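User: Last request for today: this protein with S-adenosylmethionine, please.
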Amino acid sequence: MSNGTFEIFLATAPGLEAALCAEARNLGFARPRAISGGVSFVGGWPEVWRANLASRGAARVLARIDSFRTVHLSQLDKRSRRVPWAGVLRTDVPFRVETTCKASRIYHSGAASERIARAIREELGAPMSDEADVVIKARIERDICTIAVDTSGEPLHKRGFKEEVAKAPMRETLAAMFLRECGYDGNEPVVDPMCGSGTFVIEAAEIAAGLLPGRERRFAFEKLATFNEVAWQKLRGAATPAKPIHRFYGSDRDAGAIRMSRANAARASIAELTEFSNTPVAELSAPPGPPGLVIANPPYGDRIGDRKRLSALYRAFGHTLLTRFSGWRVGLITSDVNLARATGLPFLPPSQPVLHGGLRITLYKTEPLI
Ligand SMILES: C[S@@+](CC[C@H](N)C(=O)[O-])C[C@H]1O[C@@H](n2cnc3c(N)ncnc32)[C@H](O)[C@@H]1O
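Assistant: Here's the final one, the structure of the complex with S-adenosylmethionine:
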């Protein structure tokens, strides 16, 4: 750390680094760089708070407060005592340490965590607890140990509004990045014909309304020594709400999903911008008004017998869009290229797949349909 600045790392699912970097640039962070698994830039604590509050794509925000070379545990023990803990951790707030080791002489992550935790306890006097909300993440890679504080706590896809979750919900952070990759910037209507719990529709409406994703939730940084309540409240209040002229539509063949979507939209205070209907995709028509973006992640299916049924579903999705959504662009997220092809939609060459929940999912996009 120097003059109050350090490396801030926004973590994301592999494959979304470039999209997250574009968002970070858009949010005005200084010279963000896309690196493996996330985005890095230099900043201070106000930037950490703002990244947690305003980034829609980051899965969590890490403050990398120190970094040093270490090749054995006693050296790690000694050097860990010189990390500027007192400037970051509070003596009255419990902490815990998580370590990962890769290609390093120190390979026992449990022993490494123990050494770092003991150094903090003895040097600072802060209590350690397995249930602590404040987590120190140490990464030892090629004998370099990076010490980071997880400033988010609960992962950032938990915006704090969604109590009701469908069977296979899209994470809010991923949904926001896929919307961005489809060129969505809040200025067009959005339709999700298989909306489940409403993630795409709610994210799109919030973006259009200028609402900050972290406006209601709590963060781990509130429990650090660096937290400034007055400055934080000022930052939270600095949003510029907009009055969107477009509407955001979700439909699903499952009545339970529609009930959930409505409840989630109401909790996020964007109910009046959204419309949800219990309609199967084969019966859906375009809403009145100008065209915009259709985006969906239909079921992917993991059992062999699903194949035929899913092909028919993707065909019906494609048929509805090709016959009734002229002028609309499409974004389809699926793990199976053959299912994407079954839609018959004129997809552009896809970008890199995204690793999510053990699956490689890909966004397939079209130009406006004719
Ligand atoms: C993977 S989930 C979508 C999850 C959603 N993006 C979310 O974040 O909650 C797929 C959804 O497609 C819906 N679905 C399946 N077949 C459908 C059909 N023929 N018409 C409309 N919706 C359908 C399911 O009910 C399910 O909610």
